[in-house]
TrEMBL record:
Domain of life, per lineage: Eukaryota
Biased composition (Polar residues): 1-24
Leader sequence residues: none
InterPro entries for this protein: CHP01589_pln
Name used for this protein in its record: Angiotensin-converting enzyme 2
Coiled-coil region list: none
Lineage of the species this protein comes from: Eukaryota, Viridiplantae, Streptophyta, Embryophyta, Tracheophyta
Pfam families given in the database record: A_thal_3526
Organism: Stylosanthes scabra
Length: 155
């Protein structure tokens, strides 16, 4: 997977294990060492990088934005507004990546739907077949195959 651009990549692994304080949804993302949110809470560069790293891990699992926001809220207690803000910033900085990523998400959804329909079709065919399929009469010396085979007739 293509690496996302970021301002700094220092201490990537150690930060991903930390849990930041809850952040307010209006926390500005800046290039300075820290910023003050409307609620007076400090948002450090480390907090931003941590959320970015966690989002990148979720992207590797092909999660959509809502799934990422819910996952970070439940597992890392990160405010959904802050996650959304960092997501938007990543989208702005990596427009081409996210364009391709959203196409992959659509493909994932189509594959899951196809697999569901295929399984449903399998169960329908399995339940509609009789226990034994009667053999067709012998025509012109050709013997039909025995067993449970589905034969499609074309007219």
């Amino acid at each position: 997977m293509q690496e996302l651009q970021s301002s700094t990549q220092a201490s990537h692994d150690s930060q991903s294990e930390q849990q930041p304080n809850n952040h307010t949804p209006d926390a500005p993302v800046t290039d300075s060492g820290s910023a003050t949110a409307n609620g007076g809470k400090k948002v450090s560069r480390q907090d931003i990088e941590l959320v970015q790293n966690l989002i990148e891990r979720c992207l590797q699992l092909y999660m959509n934005k809502d799934e990422v926001v819910k996952t970070l809220l439940t597992r890392a207690k990160i405010d959904p507004g802050f996650t959304t803000l960092v997501w938007k910033k990543l989208e702005e900085e990596n427009a081409d990546f996210f364009k391709a990523y959203y196409i992959r998400l659509k493909l994932k959804k189509q594959i899951l739907l196809f697999n569901h329909l295929l399984e449903h079709q399998y169960h329908l065919m399995k339940s509609s077949l009789p226990a034994t399929v009667p053999l067709a009469p012998i025509q012109n010396g050709i013997h039909p195959m025995s067993g449970n085979y589905c034969v499609l007739w074309m007219y």
